[in-house]
Amino acid sequence: MARFVKVASVPFVIPDISAKPEDQHLSDFMLDVMGAQIETVLPDKPDLIILPEVCDRPKGMSKEAVCEFYTTRGSRTIDGLCQIARENHCYIAAGIARDSDNGVRYNSCVMIDRQGHVMGYYDKNFIVPTETEDYGIQAGSDIAVFDCDFGRVGAVICFDLNFSELYAKYRDAGCDLIVFPSHFDGGHLCNIFAHETGAYFVSCYTGKQQRAVALDPLGYQIATNTNYHPNLVVTLNLDYQICHLDKNRAKLAEAKQKYGSQFQIRDNGYIGTLVLTSESQERSCLDIVREFDITLRSEYFAQARQHRENCLKNQGK
User: Fold this and answer.
1) How far apart are CA 52 and CA 63, in angstroms?
2) Which of 10, 24, 82, 198 has the fewest beta carbons under 10 Å from its own?
3) Helix axis angle, 165-172 relative to 188-197, nearest 10°?
4) Which residue stretches of the chain are H helix?
5) Where are the alpha helices (DSSP H) in 136-248?
6) Does the pLDDT of residue 181 top 90, yes or no?
7) Please, are residues 194 and 172 in contact by the beta-carbon 8 Å criterion?
8) How far from 271 is each of 155, 192, 294, CA to CA, in Å?
9) 85 by DSSP, 3-state: which?
10) What pLDDT does residue 208 have?
């Protein structure tokens, strides 16, 4: 059955420390900044709001000041975001440096649920050396997948995007959506990550510019922010499957003939693969796929690998 989720990416401009009033705690100042930006997307009632990497660290701070802030801040920022999530009945995925219970400092993405509870953290696996040298940040050891009421969400942060080791892990985990809080745009690497994981991908980049992009599970752009509207709100249908055209053309035509607008075929062209979605409330996309014996991309590629193995064995006889 159709599984629609409304995702808001809020790549707000990180302010300079000089903008903070003297009598205001830094965490409260940054929560005010984040809250004002979040307010702009709340009329759309998003299910999930994404905030950028290290979103509560202003510009213009010395390395020593940043380290002191991380040490003394405690849970103030996360508590404030939990309150926003609870009051607006939405999930929040926010990039934030944190000190774990055992004292290890990570560059993390925290996932907060609709009730304002922390579901868990993804700790950036591939940190740049200066993160450790300047701020004591350590590398995370694995991926993290968050089971939300609309689907399974994974996260990668900034420099992570360069490392293919994460593709297979998230693909095998069956993620529906990957969120990307970052201080690095990512360019076509975002498209590659979406394609290789077979998941929707929504970025939240703030740096020299604000950039938010939503990609389909083949890595093609669905929506983006603009210079006029820096924040992005997009609705995704997570009831989807990916198939290849080979052996499926007639079956796809039959399914479309029977179910019409309830069965959507997204054909981006040139790569032979399609994204199928169900907009029906009675049957899932997988139900339709199985009804018409449509071969999924993963199945077809597995068959191709096995065919190659058979050919190689035959050559050796």
Assistant:
1) 20
2) 24
3) 40
4) 26-39, 63-72, 76-88, 129-135, 165-172, 188-197, 249-259, 285-291, 297-315
5) 165-172, 188-197
6) yes
7) no
8) 26, 13, 18
9) helix
10) 82
Q: Are 225 and 41 in contact (CB under 8 A)?
A: no
Residue with tokens 């740096």: 207
3-state secondary structure of 193: helix
* Residue 119 DSSP SS3: strand
Helix, strand or coil for residue 262?
A: helix
Q: How far apart are CA 110 and CA 49, in angstroms?
A: 12
Q: Would you state the pLDDT for residue 14?
A: 94
- DSSP character at residue 237: E
Beta strands at 177-182 and 200-206: parallel, antiparallel or unpaired: parallel
pLDDT at 229 over 90: yes
Per-residue confidence at 316, pLDDT binned at 50, 70, 90? confident
**pLDDT tens across 119-131, in order?**
999 999 999 999 9
Question: How many CA atoms are closer than 13 Å to the CA of 34, on its beta-carbon side?
Answer: 31
Mean pLDDT, the chain, as a whole number?
A: 96
CA distance 179 to 234: 13
The dihedrals phi and psi of 35, each to the nearest 5 degrees, come to -60, -40
Question: Two tokens at 32?
Answer: 């005010």
Nearest CA-CA partner of 185 in 201, 208, 154: 208
- Tell which wins on pLDDT, 86 or 208: 86
Beta-strand relationship, 232-237 and 105-112: unpaired
- Alpha-carbon distance of 264 to 245, in angstroms, equals 15
pTM (global) more than 0.85? yes
In the block, tokens 């940190």 appear at: 127
Q: What is the pLDDT of residue 317?
A: 58
Residue in this structure with the two tokens 């922010």, named with its chain if needed:
225
User: For the chain, what's the residue count?
Assistant: 317
pLDDT digits (tens, 9 = 90+) for 137-174: 999 999 999 999 999 999 999 999 999 999 999 999 99
Tokens representing 273? 């693969």
